[in-house]
Amino acid sequence: MSALSVMLVLLLPALLGAPLLALLDGSRRGRVGYWAERIAGGWLLGVPLCGAMLRLFVSSPPMALFGASIVWLLVLAGAFWLLWWWRVRRIPASSVPATATFSGWNGLCWLLLILLVTHWLLAALQALWLPTLTWDAWTTWLGKPKAWSGADSLSSFQALQAWSAAGGEGGLTALAPHYPESVPRYLMLLVSAAGGWSSSTSHLPWLFLQPMIGVSVFAGLRRIGCQTWLALLGAYALLSMPLVDAHLSLAGYLDLWIAALLALAALALWRWRQTGERRHLLTCLLFTAALPLLKQEGAVWLLLMLATLVLLVLPSRLRWLLLGLGLLALVVGLLLGGLPIPAPGLGTVWLRWGQITVPGIGDIDLALHPVLPEVFASLFLLPNFHLLWWLLPIGALIAWRQCCFDRGARGLGLLLLFGLCFVGFLFFFTDAAAWAKNLTSLNRIVLQLVPVAILFLVALFSAAGQEPDDRAAPTAR
């Protein structure tokens, strides 16, 4: 019975997320590739969504969480499917959207597929066989469900200082009690379904992660119009990264989950820029809105995506006006003592002269830190990202016309630029420079941006030889 319960929990995110994506797409029927894309993307979206729903069951004993919540979660999934059916039954049967297809296979495609499966098998076996390592994954993400199961309570966590001041009473303590708990709650549901804590059981979602990312990226690129070999090459370029393999093998980190949702949001952004259809914009916003449920920096990616969308929607004159007003507001705010910046999922971030205050973290002093050698070594010399950061500027220089005129490449390029500015600000001007010097969080934060960089290169390559399409914007539908 426990094996069936575990399998149900593993499939539950797809049952929750797939109908939401199909509902936004608004199609009545689709081929195999269409539903493969919806199920894979829905699973990636459904994990944080399921974890967020589990906040309603905090009064339940941890080991009884499965029995207390599974019926309600299945009812919610059924409601999503009924809502999708109610909407699409009015759509003519002949109205079928562009869908991912599996045609056009050749020897290169089969080779890439075999390599992807090999990567997955090696990473999956290592994730199952290795115990949970005592790194950030243990203390922050996988440590919380084990603490809940041991304490027999879903009580909230508090900082070590507060716990010490209370004499060791009043709940559980963690090094990062303010971090989002959607994934730890979903892992607790999985542990509850299994009947007890097990490292192998808690690592199972990471076995699903690689194939779900691969199918989503491949199918998304095929829907956009990329050839089969190019779509598979884009998926392989992402999933063969040494650091990606490390995060799949050493289960517990959530940076790859952030990268996955950001990749799907970027694909929807590309599709929206290509067609002008509102459904793709809504899909982009849905994936982006789920980012703060995973990690704190998800709130930053949400703000950067919103800034990208605003600048892409506005006419060129209004863009400059908005940038000028933003700069004026920044100067006035700093002169008046501080500028509040609302960050969904994080709170209000206060920006002051020489200091920034982040909820849950505190005051961070702003100063220039000389970490350029470490950043250069991590991106260009060490075997973390293959040759990605060498190819990115070369590709942009060679395909500068696509950077300027292709709508999809320009949208992805703007998001990538904002992301690189965030990474540069974080490690060159804040205390996070210490993480750059020891090459820890630097690589993990950069990993979150890797899919956008790869999709940008694919957009440049796929647009090569095409005429500039910026003269006539697509009509929004």
Radius of gyration of CA atoms, rounded to a whole number: 23 Å
Strand content: under 5%
- Total of helices: 21
Strands in their spatial order, largest beta sheet = 3-4-5-6
Q: What letter string, H or E per element, gives the SSE order? A: HHHHHEHEHHHHHHHHHEEEEHHHHHH
Distance between the termini: 48 Å
Helix coverage percent of residues? 55-70%
Q: Can you count the beta strands?
A: 6
* Average pLDDT metric: 85
List keywords for this structure.
single chain; 477 residues; mainly alpha; 2 domains; four-stranded antiparallel sheet; two-stranded parallel ribbon; disordered C terminus
Summarize the structure.
It is built from 21 helices and six strands. The chain is mostly helical.
Describe this protein's structure.
With 477 residues, the chain is mainly α. The chain has 2 domains: 2-93 and 104-253, no CATH class; 361-477, no CATH class. It contains 21 helices and 6 strands. It has helices at 2-25, 32-53, 65-88, 107-129, 136-151, 160-165, 182-194, 199-202, 204-224, 228-239, 242-249, 255-275, 278-289, 297-313, 316-335, 372-381, 388-398, 400-405, 407-429, 433-437, 441-463, and strands at residues 157-158, 172-173, 339-343, 347-352, 355-358, 362-365. The strands form 2 sheets. A 4-stranded antiparallel sheet has the order 3-4-5-6. It has a two-stranded parallel sheet with strand order 1-2. A hairpin with a 3-residue loop joins strand 5 and strand 6. Helix 2 crosses helix 9, helix 5 (136-151) packs across helix 7 and helix 14 runs antiparallel to helix 19 (407-429). Mean pLDDT is 85; it is low at 468-477.
